[in-house]
Amino acid sequence: QVQLVESGGGMVQAGDSLRLTCVASGRATSKAAMGWFRQAPGKEREFVAAINWGGAVTHYSEAAQGRFIISRDSGSNTVHLQMNSLKPEDTANYLCTADSLGTLTAAVKTTRHWDYWGRGTQVTVSS
Is the pLDDT of residue 100 over 90? Predict the structure, then answer.
């Protein structure tokens, strides 16, 4: 059984920062690439950022590029998403995800790349 547990969400004002953390457990995640998606009410799940097993390769959405930083603790399945200069449009439930490959394929920005999902942590940004 694979479990992904997110934390760090909250209610902040525009311009503030938040740091999300996700911890993955379970044998299947021993060398997993990990990522973050977000989903706002009535909208589709949207890719935010991803990082490979070694931590050397990252991908970001256009909305996240330059404001968010994804990182992972060395040799572990703990990943962080540092979110700076938050905007009201960043308001969503942020979901952690992991795969079974460890590397990031061309489909990394779609849900079909990913095998496991957490329940999410809510981020609300007020103007």
Answer: no
